[in-house]
Amino acid sequence: MPLRTVLSRALAILVLSMLALTAPPRAAVAQDTLQPLLQQYAEELASPSRRSFGAVADALLADGRPGAADFLRRYEAREVVQRPEDGLFFYAEDAGDLVRLIDVDTGAAVADVSSRDVDQIRANAGVRRVIAAALVPFELNAPERARREAALDAISRSAEASQIAPLADSIAQEPDPDLKTRKERLFLLLTAQFGAERAERLEAIAALGGDTSIEARGVLNQLTATRTEVAPSLPESANIARVLTVGEDLTQAEAYADLVDAGLAEPAQTPSELRAVLAENIVDGRVGGVPVGRLSDPMARIEAYEALEDAGAVPPRAAPDEAAQAVAAHVFYDEYVLNDPEITTAAQDALDSTAQAIATYQMADLVLDGLSLASIFFLAAIGLAITFGVMGVINMAHGEFIMMGAYTGYVVQLFIPDYTISLLVALPLAFLVTFGAGVAMERAVIRHLYTRPLETLLATFGISIALQQLAKNIFGTQARPLTAPDWLGGAITFNDIVGISTIRVAIFVLALIFLGVLLYILKRTRLGLEVRAVTQNPGMAASMGINPDRINMLTFGLGSGIAGIAGVAIGLYAQVTSEMGASYIVQSFMTVVVGGVGNVWGTLAGASLIGFLQKGIEWFNPSNTLAAQTFMVLFVILFIQFRPKGIVALKGRAAGD
Amino acid sequence: MSALLEVSGVSVTFDGFRAINNLSIAIGEPELRAVIGPNGAGKTTFMDIVTGKTRPDEGRVLWGEASLSLLGMSESAIARAGIGRKFQKPTVFEDQTVRENLAMALRNKRGPFDVLFYKTNRQARARIAELADEIGLSDALPRRAGDLSHGQKQWLEIGMLLAQDPRLLLVDEPAAGMTPAEREHTTELLTRAAKTRAVVVIEHDMEFIRRLNCKVTVLHEGSVLAEGSLDHVTQNQQVIDVYLGR
Amino acid sequence: MAKTTLAPRKGFLSENPSVLRFLGLLALFTIIISALAEGFGVGVISTSFLKVLGMTLCLCLIAVAMDVVWGYCGILSLGHFAFFGLGGYGIGMWLMYARTEGIVRESLANAPIPATEGEVRDAIATQIFSVVGSTELPFIWGFAHSLTLQLLLIVLVPGLLALVFGWLAFRSRVTGVYLSILTQAMTLALSLYLFQNDTGLRGNNGLSGLQNIPGLLHLPQSTIALWFFWASALALGLGYLLFAWLVSGKFGSVVRAIRDNESRVRFLGYHVESYKLVVFTATAIVSGIAGALYYPQAGIINPAEIAPITSIYLAVWVAIGGRGRLYGAVIGAATVSLLSSWFTGGGAPNINLGFYEIVWTDWWLVLLGLGFVAVTLFFPKGIGGLFDYLVRKP
């Protein structure tokens, strides 16, 4: 009982809405079956053509019989067959080797036949597009969300004036809030383009102002499209966007080229044309009396041409100032393609306010980009900063620890196929591996070189090239994948302009965690206290019973371990290669030096400065990342001139010399 | 006796810590002056300011008859103007010979190209021999400075100071780590030098200062607490409280 | 040695017999190699190996410069290979321009109408720059037609860059590892700049065909290689002499004092920054000259040659050879670069361990890295120090 009521109600709504939508001109309706109607158009249905099918589809839908829309949909899906004996149309379903024919009206199975006994109707892509467009008004109210969405996609792809009414009607009934918003916006877009009433149209255009979606901007740009024109004087009738000044908006040469294109001037002779003409007129080693040998001089070429001109052998040459005169005698202007000043002005205003909104969003996007770059630099540099700050040791192999961490992640993924679990295993494991490597390196090499910082730099460089080559020998030269789990794969998109990939958010969060943990370790733990003591005065710390050897070892291990974790994080969004560390090491140095040594906050400041600045420079010249990096490095060099000790500098006698 | 060096109203702060507080000192030429004070009184910082190593936050440091301000000048320019300095820890160039050390300090043109095309001469050699004799290192001239004893290094540094022929010598704890005999020699060197130029000695050792027999300035918390003969300042109650009383 | 500094100068060479010995050995080496070279028809030494030797001499020269700036003055510059590269680009521009000009003129010679200078220039520009999608000659190529001007630039460009950079860095008293990082940043900036296609030096394609010397195309490469070998030997000899003179005497004394205790030197009245600047700039210029001799023998230069890592390798050579002694730098550069080409060129026999075969092309860098660590730890004075030890205690 209840099922039946639900069904009948649904049917009633469907029928009612179809009535409302199609607004059939005729009162003849629903009792009729579909098959007779189909037979009226049997020929076109059996062999559809893109050009004629639109009318057929419209006619079928306009008749208002139930199932017409459904028929078209299945027709589009190539599920309709024709039985050659009686010419009836059926839906076809697979039934083993046979084809099961289903009545288009009753939905009952009629017969199972061999596929050779029926004619398959093959609607080509063009026909299917036509059907899709015709079905849009019906699909807009389809019960399935996906179909309504598809219909909206179809409208955005090919907008037409006829879609305005059905779209407007479907807005009120739309249950899904997202789709409703989308419908409303599409309605605005359609009205702005095709609205019948001027006031309505202007209103829609104004409402599009500030909308940063590509669709809205596309419509406004289309409305304000211009073409460059040239005329002896400014035409009265044209809808002029702006008048161009030769020398400012376009060069003399461009202006002349426009004149030539518009047929208002003869093309000027190019040097190579001149050369070709002269070459054709060589007579006894002379051209117009000028010896060929002299023609390497441009003036002699003109002289020769003029001689030929006098002899009537070649067409007259444009006088040098002819082009300038021609340009001066004409006005150059941009004209709106749409000759409707009211609309174009409104659209231009709307575009201007959109431009402002875009600038704001771009700023926001830039900040996000900068933030994410800064967190990467922070992660890459903080380990270095710790070892540099506490021990005064420059570790050139730091980049290789990053690489080691990334390869650890890769190896873990080879054994644990689940990306989430492998990531959870890889992070601590990378820490342990690089912690161990760091401690080993400190014990074996660095502790012998504490009094010779420059030699530490070089010794660790030796380790760096050895480790890099080892990685190459083990893992090969090609990049290895370190795949992020799916939940890190996507992106968080705020609108068409502001967006950030989830992995970068994760790196940002990781950087924050690091910052917190490091601050905690340094400020709140015994180890931190001892580390700070050794940083400030190793001799005094030693006399207070702190073992600087142990502290140095642990600090170096900690710094290296952090590099390992950073390696996993960086490997997730960049490639894991044996050279990945090397590409971060110089940036990391600069981060540490700019920020100021021996201070977590300093590294944070350095990373932020470098990250934001690099993104900022890229924003000015987005096509050239190399140039941005070049300027970045130059900036760092200059910055150090003015703050040799970095942003957060230790001051006074403790800083030493 | 006109003032050769005049420090007035100088203050300097490190991270909120006021190392020098409205300090004023005048040194004449010739004069021997001892500066004493407890740790952290600002003795070394005072030298740092005069020699250009540290920039004060406020105050004036004037030099010579022309009352030249030393504040804008680089360390090397101040040294060339005639102020020589000996550090607390002996700092000689250990990898080079005593002769090379002295030759470098010898008063000559200091520009890189002057030095590059410099050719040694009889006069210079005589001066080095004389200095070596004065600091008792005549036999050690060809030796590496790093191989000298602690006291010898101190003398070599004093010798380098004299070679510069400065008008003002700033000497930080010259007698530290010396045997009594060596101290005697050092006292002699300094008093002799003070006959023709100004010498400021920073020292902890009261016995040593008594032997110098000169005017004493007591610094405390970055400013002058008392000034006068050693007997005079040692009877000052404040001085006894902050320094001697400990 | 001690007496020499203040004894009346009888002449620099007689006071420094080691310099004379070095020059003698270099001359002997040059004569022997020349006699065995293909250019003289003996052919024991192939032209390609002669080029390797000539290039090695250039590397020795820049290593000597590096030793002066680092071993004597204490500035661990990670930027001297940038100056070397600039010198290479300087000569490369002329070589490429002049050679292309020859080709262009030859091909235009058959045209019915002789070409104008403008047409020639355009054709040259198209030839050289079509690879980066441009047909215009960038303004920095303005002097490329003239060997004299370009030779001047080889000296001026590295010199000026070193002067400006050094002045900025030294006056703000950046020292030690900071200075090293700063020089590394300079090198990085330069290589990034050159990697760009639109900066006028053909991006990562670099300049190529430099082994073809315009005007000498009729000569066989074996002869040209010999000439360049001689020129490199001469440059190394002169450079060695210049620097040996520079670091001897009082100037050398001051420079070494700066290395050991910069602020003490300041209190002696020396303007430390000027000294550093002189040393930095002089060595940069010599590095540029070394580069200008090196790249015509190598035949190609591209921005990767300037990448920061090459400058670090330079420091490694000097450290292995032994800092603070000029012949140490020569030994280091020659040993490591020749060993390196022996190992990576497949000259070294692979070692079969049964379960694993050590292929030296793969393992050479590991060996070099670890060997370098060992040298730093156990022989801080490098091979040169070992040499001293053996000479003094036979």
From TrEMBL, chain A:
One of its GO terms (molecular function) is transmembrane transporter activity. CDD domains: TM_PBP1_LivH_like. Belongs to the binding-protein-dependent transport system permease family. LivHM subfamily. The keyword Membrane applies. Keywords: Amino-acid transport, Cell membrane, Membrane, Signal, Transmembrane, Transmembrane helix, Transport. GO terms for cellular component: plasma membrane. This is High-affinity branched-chain amino acid transport system permease protein LivH. The keyword Phosphoprotein does not apply. InterPro entries: ABC_transp_permease, ABC_UrtB_bac, BCAA_transport_permease. The chain crosses the membrane at residues 371-394, 423-441, 497-522, 553-576, 588-613, 625-642. Residues 1-22 form the signal peptide. It is a multi-pass membrane protein. GO terms for biological process: amino acid transport. It is found in: Cell membrane. Pfam families: BPD_transp_2 (PF02653). It comes from the Bacteria. The gene is livH_1.
Automatic annotation (TrEMBL), chain B:
It is an enzyme of class 3 (hydrolase). Residues 5-246 form the ABC transporter domain. One of its GO terms (molecular function) is ATP hydrolysis activity. It comes from the Bacteria. PROSITE patterns: ABC_TRANSPORTER_2 (PS50893). Keywords: ATP-binding, Hydrolase, Nucleotide-binding, Transport. The keyword ATP-binding applies. CDD domains: ABC_Mj1267_LivG_branched. The keyword Nucleotide-binding applies. GO terms for cellular component: plasma membrane. Pfam families: ABC_tran (PF00005). SUPFAM superfamilies: P-loop containing nucleoside triphosphate hydrolases (SSF52540). InterPro entries: AAA+_ATPase, ABC_AA/LPS_Transport, ABC_transporter-like_ATP-bd, ABC_transptr_urea_ATP-bd_UrtD, P-loop_NTPase. This is Lipopolysaccharide export system ATP-binding protein LptB. The lineage of its organism: Bacteria, Pseudomonadati, Pseudomonadota, Alphaproteobacteria, Rhodobacterales.
TrEMBL record, chain C:
Keywords: Cell membrane, Membrane, Transmembrane, Transmembrane helix. The keyword Transmembrane applies. It comes from the Bacteria. It holds the Pfam family BPD_transp_2. It comes from Roseinatronobacter ekhonensis. One of its GO terms (cellular component) is plasma membrane. The chain crosses the membrane at residues 20-45, 52-72, 78-97, 149-170, 177-195, 224-247, 274-294, 300-319, 326-343, 363-391. It is found in: Cell membrane. GO terms for molecular function: branched-chain amino acid transmembrane transporter activity. This is High-affinity branched-chain amino acid transport system permease protein LivH. The keyword Transmembrane applies. It is a multi-pass membrane protein.
